[in-house]
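re: that complex we talked abt at group meeting.

here r the seqs, copy pasted straight from the sheet so there may be weird spacing, ignore it
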Amino acid sequence: MSVELFFQSLIDGTLMGGIYGLVAIGLTLIFGVMKIINFAQGALMMLGMYVSYWCFAILGISPYLSLPLSAIILFAIGMTMQRGILQRMAGAPDHNQLLVTLGITLFIENLALVIFKPDFRSVTVDSLPASLSFFNLNIHTTKLIAFLFAIVLAIGLFYFLKKTFIGKAIRATSINSQGASLVGVNITKINYIAFGLGAALAGVAGSLITPFFYTSPTVGASFILKGFVVVVLGGLGNFIGALVGGLLIGISEAFGGVLLPGSLKDLMTYLIFIIILLLKPSGLFGGKTR
Amino acid sequence: MLKVENINAGYGNLQILRNLSFEVNQGEVVSILGTNGAGKTTTLRAISGLIPIHSGTVYFNDVLLNKKSAEFIVKSGLVQVPEDRKLFTDMTVLENLEMGAYTKGARKNLKKNLEYCFELFPILKERIKQISGTMSGGQQQMVAIARALMAEPKLLILDEPSIGLSPLLTKQVFEIISEIKKNGVTILLVEQNVNQALQLADRGYVIENGEVVMSGDAGVLLNDENLKAAYLGITTEKVAL
Amino acid sequence: MKKSHIFYGIGLILIALFPFVTDNQYFMHIAILILYYALVSQAWNILSGYAGQFSFGHAIFFGTGAYSSAILLSKYNISPWIGMFIGAIIAIGIALLIGFLSFRYKLRGAYFSLGTLAFAEILRILVQNMDYFNKTLGILLPIGDNPWLFQFESRAGYFYIILILTIIVTVVAYLISKSRLGFNLIAIRENEEAAQSLGVKTFKNKMIAIAISGALTSVGGTFYAQYLLYIDPPTTFGNDVSISIILPAILGGMGTILGPFMGAIIIVPLGELTSHFFGGFAGIHLMVYGLILVLVILFLPEGLVGWFQEKMRSSRLKKEGNQNDITET
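got the structure back, here u go
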């Protein structure tokens, strides 16, 4: 492999990894607070993509401007999911929670299929150059922007959790929810907010990738599996682990795509998943086990 | 201040508390005693809203607490230091204390209460940035008590504060509780260490099988022969010298 | 003979007479689908319902059965009857491999479920990228009327085959449930540590369960291949397949024998009806499946049969209680 190809893959992988990290952060936040494995995270991301797509197709608005709308709508959807359905599942066995979120995924994805049809749609951002050149390397502008957004959001979320009272309450709830109740935290409300946040992150990730990823009802499927791999890799409930894990998976996927033929690059991701599950299920950085 | 009347509670189909009644008046220290499994912790969980009460009433300053959420109960001024502490182990001492002041009222006086806690527990001031999960049992207990104090309790409930602590640390903890009492906080103390508890308390209740079987002034209980036999392991027979 | 056995016997005879009652090919098709879903779901039930090891990747066994017999037939002219047998053997091999890795490394609960998902996806990707399996083009099987080659002219033939296969799988599940193995599996499901401390060889029992489950699922896969006469990676190894395998058991009741059957009877016609009435909208029946899944887990997590059994149990206990009161006076 030439040096150029090496660095090109590294860059492509890192940029995409930021998105995986964003999806995984949402997943890990939800898991940390509510101990729920949200299978529907990919489907929520897909909905975010459609919000931005329709804003673009009907109103001509750039996805970077419709991003906040995507976040708000997905926040509301996430909160509704928690309040209406998942809240009742507190304390239910693992697999039942997975099944419910799986059922929700089936419902959302196929609802989208029925309403939006299976067509692949694309969003273009004409105001920007298609790519930047850097030492003979090609950097897609929209991927770069997505990456930067993702990093900024991750940092913002980090500070939110570290410095604000609500953020601390979220962390406290995820560490010891009864303890949090005993200092006056409204656990029910915190759960709504946490799920809403997790969903909003998925929605934002969706909006960010619309310029370089086709929007379609089934797009969530590959992201959710990768999301799980990242979350397990980084450690369930581990925020920084999710981000780093995302980058690692993005990079290994990029290298896999270069080294392996056809659609075998996904194979890399799943093999890594199996290996981590078997050897270090608590993740590279440790996290909560169930 | 706190009036518990005929409460019945338990876990699922298992009933633990049977028509339990007791009360705590303002400014008092009341102790609830009993062996393991008598229902002491269950009582505290029920009062703090962690488990539901099937029947009976709990009044706190004339407000009915029965169906209220745990957060509401804390906001009303009834704060508990649970038996297993329930600390936010991944968070620092400071963060734990800050979380103690989560309710709006307590947040206003956060700085002032923080100072007060550091006076009571100087060691916490030293280790303010330490992750609470890495502290020793005794230190964690101090964090737990301090955290509860940050919530500006009108009635402070302590569930077995001396559990797992060495005699020296136990003495320290009880000295601190004594300090807190002097500062005008009403205290409900659940303890297995009968001696220490009754020396500190004004009145006491003895629970067995989820019911109150004995009650009275602390001094009287401390000298009660039956109590001594059952819980202190001291017999009434004089040993021949 | 117990009352229920007579009941089942009559039911079975009625079902067997079905092709004589109607020769509407569409109804036959539905009946075949119901039976075949009941079969694979029952096979899954053995591992996940009884042993409590929740597999989200059972498509791996299904696809193995389908591709084994299809390859053997199309490339080597070997009868699918033999292919079915060989497919089951290969499925057992795969099951033992997955089982060994998962159970040896103590994958439990959600970790196990996601792990099986990953395994299924890995096999799908491999098959999809290998010329030997015709990659994404899939395999087209020859139509014919030679029963020795698992080919039947009318649907009735397929109906009887799937009926017999489903009965066999149900009987196997039933025998397991009443045997020492079944007892062990349930103990493992309820509390694996406790079972182990009581002397149950948890690893061995789980391996047996996954092997049987995998083998029987692959039989279903072979039938599917021969019935539809076309297979490709997504329709045999895909996630949708795994989901449709578990749905009947969940609706009907995991850990019960009748559950998968009840679930299939409801889900298949429901799916067909929705597709029929809303034919213009692809995927609407999956929406309904998703909704059912959520509702069942929320309100009836033990499934229809499970719920019914609970009702029977509690009313019987009440009756016994009353009888005791009477004898006491």
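couple things i noticed - The CA atoms of residues 100 and 207 of chain C lie 7 Å apart. Chain C touches chain A through 39 residues (CB under 8 Å).
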